[in-house]
Write a structure and sequence with these properties.
The chain is an all-alpha fold. It contains 22 helices and three strands. Helix 15 crosses helix 18. Bound molecules: nitromethyldethia coenzyme A and D-malate. Its main location: mitochondrion.
């Protein structure tokens, strides 16, 4: 079977020719206007960035290589296509994004899964990385630990080493970028497992790496989702629940990979990478951006928020109490986590797919008051946010549902939720980074303006 690298190599001549012709022919065509407001409002809506794998429509939501999420769910291979939600393997999405839209066969996805597994060298972090992570203060935020973990792994960067010793050139940058990216993605389950064990088990392993299993399975296994792990805080799950948890992980990791290029984690990875910074350093910057509460950290904030609200209202079915709780939050000038979006103007289809996971297992979730609250919130929060009148999108985003579903199965460490997000997010921005190198995109360097310069620009004819 041909490797992912072979597939990419074959695509390069045709794709670069198309790209270069397009640039040459249309380079001076104007496609957007920049206003003062866009400069002063986080460049919202500026069409100013090239990103190939994913696009975002405000109403329809995400497309991956022009496939909607539900098209991906029916087209990309998974291990359990006949079992409910057509949950595809994140490895299938990785192949799909890296090859600019080639749908892998199940055999290719499994081959990639195996490749990632082999890259972990028997499921072990390099000893020095493991030792340093073991010594981090156990209360250090897991996202900080993850960022440190990636920085520690950077000494294995082929790109950095070969750039330094002068054996790389512009035509071959992409090869080491791919190598580093796949090694980095392969290491994410090990980092996640290590960090989780730091949180709850004094750094001692909670489970084992299984080389014959897929990437998501191994994240679950390393955080202790298996019956043999005495020290796990996740216990007493039936076989069916264990299987569901792994499927939830596959679903989650498959749908969080990317969200066009402008989101903070993707954009930071791209920006830092544009200086020819290697994938470890670049994605570590992405992680640091993901750790902001308005971005990926909302995953943890939603869980904390639901738990707190649930303990302050008489029942998750009491919509009036939920409404009052929300108004109180807004009057304290706090945000409702999991609601709103910088680009979307509709319910996030990724949220809907997580909700479908719940609907397909209605008995499992019937007595979970937090999950009920998460669902009932969708009946109240959009109305409240609309009446509040500030937010441009009053609907739920992906973070609204994810964490509380993991919580249901026993993953109770709320601060850990964003680490799982980060495992997934590696896939999109790093696929783009490989193609940034293939296309030879230059260093990103927009022009900034001070108030005086802006004043001059608005008053000059
Ligand atoms: N609750 C309360 N107020 C909100 C919310 C919300 N969920 N969303 C937006 N607003 C406010 C926002 O703070 C701003 O207020 P002000 O004018 O006082 O600064 C106003 O509404 C206008 O904001 P928008 O233009 O609608 O949103 P913007 O593009 O600036 O920000 C988010 C987008 C996602 C940062 C914002 O909706 C938010 O803070 N949501 C809650 C946090 C969250 O769920 N983030 C996760 C996003 C998804 N992800 O995974 O990254
Ligand atoms: C994401 O997945 O990155 C979020 O929805 C935030 C964004 O798109 O800006």
């Amino acid at each position: 079977v041909r490797s992912l690298k072979d597939e990419i190599k074959e695509l390069i001549p045709q794709k670069t020719q198309q790209f270069n012709l397009f640039r040459k022919k249309f380079k001076d065509v104007k496609i957007d206007t920049i206003t003062v407001n866009s400069i002063l409002s986080g460049m919202r809506g500026n069409k100013s960035m090239f990103w190939q794998g994913t696009t975002l429509d405000p109403i329809e939501g995400i497309r991956f290589n022009n496939f909607t999420l539900s098209q991906c769910q029916t087209s990309l291979p998974g291990l359990n296509q006949n079992n409910h939600s057509n949950i595809f393997l994140p490895e299938s999405m990785l192949w799909f994004l890296m090859t600019g839209g080639k749908i892998p066969t199940l055999q290719q996805s499994l081959q990639l899964s195996n490749d990632l597994s082999e890259r972990t060298k028997n499921g072990n972090l390099p000893p020095n990385v493991n030792n340093i992570l073991s010594q981090l203060p156990k209360k250090m935020h897991p996202m900080t630990q993850l960022s440190i973990g990636l920085l520690l792994l950077q000494e294995n960067s082929f790109f950095q080493k070969n750039y330094e010793n002068g054996t790389l050139n512009k035509d071959t940058y992409w090869e080491d970028t791919l190598e580093d990216s796949l090694n980095l993605i392969a290491m994410m389950p090990l980092l996640a497992g290590k960090i989780y064990s730091n949180m709850i088990n004094e750094g001692k392993p909670l489970g084992q790496f299984n080389p014959s299993k897929d990437w998501s399975y191994n994240i679950c296994s390393l955080i202790g989702i298996n019956k043999n792990s005495d020290s796990s805080n996740i216990s007493n799950l039936s076989n069916r629940q264990l299987e569901d948890f792994v499927n939830l992980m596959r679903l989650y990791l498959g749908i969080h990979v990317d969200h066009e290029g402008g989101n903070v984690s993707a954009h930071s990875t791209h920006l830092v990478g544009s200086a020819l910074t290697d994938p470890y350093l670049s994605y570590s910057s992405g992680i640091n951006g993901l750790a902001g509460p308005l971005h990926g950290l909302a995953a943890q904030e939603v869980v904390r928020f639901l738990i707190e609200m649930n303990s302050n209202i008489s029942s998750p079915k009491n919509l009036l109490e939920i409404e009052n709780y929300l108004w109180n939050l807004l009057s304290c000038k706090r945000v409702i986590p999991g609601y709103g979006h910088a680009v979307l103007r509709n319910t996030d289809p990724r949220f809907t797919s997580l909700l479908n996971f719940v609907h397909e297992r209605s008995q499992e979730f019937a007595n979970d008051s937090h999950v009920q609250l998460m669902q009932n919130l969708t009946k109240v929060a959009p109305k409240v946010l609309t009446e509040h009148g500030k937010c441009q999108n009053p609907y739920p985003n992906v973070d609204s549902a994810s964490g509380i579903l993991f919580y249901h199965y026993g993953l109770k460490q709320t601060l850990f939720m964003t680490v799982i997000f980060a495992c997934s997010r590696a896939i999109g921005p790093l696929s783009q980074l490989v193609w940034d190198r293939i296309y030879g995109l230059p260093i990103e360097r927009p022009k900034s303006l001070d108030l005086n310069s802006l004043k001059k620009l608005v008053t000059s004819p």
